[in-house]
Design goal:
This protein is an alpha/beta fold. The protein contains 10 helices and 10 strands. The strands form 2 sheets. Strands 1-2-3-6-7-8-9-10 form an 8-stranded parallel barrel. A two-stranded antiparallel ribbon has the order 4-5. The radius of gyration is 19 Å and the shape is globular. The N terminus is likely disordered.
């Protein structure tokens, strides 16, 4: 527990590649677990999502499988609307499918942390109107709008933190891939959520994604900003509370969460999503945010990386990325592969899933080609 707290402390680091106070943290490397996130319009809003129908019921054997691979962290996605069917509702709901959804989620978090000693990042994955990655939205409406005020986002995180504040192996990822919004509006919402989590009595680490789908390579760019003047995530982090007043955590335990994919569009969604643009693609993308964060004394965690291990240059690409991660551990705290889950829900080893789910649904064992590639480096 103490080791986990030391690892994610938010104190500044020197510009040189040295570890704070001579302390060398362990490699915080793991996988995403998909299957409990879902589009809000795919289940009855009145009664809530149905276990095993609208979302995967995660077996403890799945967690055992990843623990056996020496996975140290799971990023476990969920849906805000399924946790809180009306803005301001208590978490968990009193009964019914909504309560069952929370119970199923917390059951697997508790098993991973209490039984297997793994760290778990709990993070909402929100859908847009088309079912894609919606970012900071609730039922398709953006955080900061009249329908979903920033106070509602902060209240949601206060309620979630109250449920998980006693589990020191839980971290909070504020939301998956904010996009199509004002950068400064997003960082204002992030600050409000940080304040609410701390006010709820929770001291765990908080991962703050960037606007523009949290892309590592565009951290210092501003083209994704819908506001005027356009601002980059780098600017937003350093001026979230006004000019020269950076994003603030009274506990000093925040880090930037970024994502990267290696096809030409950096999204596993191009015309050739299984392609890898270069053996140095991952390290080139990450250098943008890692160099910026190091210069300004904050840390970075790579919440998603994935590609197809059957690509001819996959092994060389992975080796280059791991070498970069090792060399930059003063600022880059680790990564989570996209993605794993229950075999029946997440079997595709190609883009956009890049599955590391067990291949045998009955025994929850057997390794995909992607797992064969990455397992030695957990």
């Amino acid at each position: 527990m103490l080791l986990a707290m030391l690892l994610w402390s938010g104190a500044s680091v020197a510009a040189e590649h040295v570890f704070r106070d001579g302390f060398e943290p362990p490699r915080l490397r793991g996988v995403n677990i998909a299957g409990m996130e879902m589009a809000y319009f795919n289940y009855p809003q009145a009664t809530g999502p149905v276990a095993g129908g609208n979302y995967a019921v995660l077996d403890t054997g799945l967690i055992d499988y990843y623990a056996g691979k020496q996975v140290r962290v799971l990023r476990l996605l969920f849906s805000w609307e399924a946790m809180q069917p009306q803005l301001g509702d208590p978490i968990p709901a009193a009964a019914g499918n909504y309560r069952a959804y929370f119970d199923n989620y917390k059951r697997i978090v508790d098993y991973a942390t209490d039984v297997q000693g793994m760290q778990v990042v709990i993070e909402p994955w929100q859908a847009d109107a088309g079912g894609g990655a919606g970012g900071a939205r609730w039922r398709g409406m953006p955080v900061g709008s009249a329908q979903v005020p920033v106070s509602a986002f902060a209240g949601f995180w206060a309620a979630m933190a109250a449920q998980f504040r006693d589990n020191g192996l839980v971290s909070y990822g504020l939301v998956n891939e904010p996009n199509n919004m004002s950068t400064m509006q997003w960082f204002a919402a992030a600050q409000a959520a940080i304040d609410a989590i701390r006010a709820a009595g929770s001291s765990q680490r908080i991962l703050v994604p960037g606007n523009g789908y949290s892309a590592a390579s565009t951290w210092t760019s501003s083209s994704y900003d819908t506001g005027s003047p356009q601002r980059s995530n780098a600017y937003g982090w350093l001026n979230a509370n006004g000019p020269g007043q950076p994003l603030h955590d009274p506990a000093g335990r925040i880090a930037a969460e970024v994502h990267t994919y290696l096809d030409s569009w950096e999204c596993a969604c191009s015309d050739t999503p299984d392609a890898i643009s270069s053996t140095h693609a991952a390290s080139d993308h990450l250098a943008v945010v890692v160099d910026e964060a190091r210069a300004h004394g904050y840390r970075v965690w790579l919440g998603e990386i994935g590609f197809y291990a059957g690509n001819a240059i996959a092994a060389a690409t992975w080796a280059d990325f791991v070498a970069y991660a090792d060399a930059n551990r003063d600022t880059l705290e680790g990564y989570a592969w996209w993605a794993g889950g229950m075999p029946a829900w997440w079997p595709d080893v190609h883009a956009p899933h890049f599955s590391v789910a067990p291949t045998d649904a009955a025994s929850l064992d057997g390794d995909s080609i992607n797992m064969d590639l990455i397992e030695p480096d957990f």
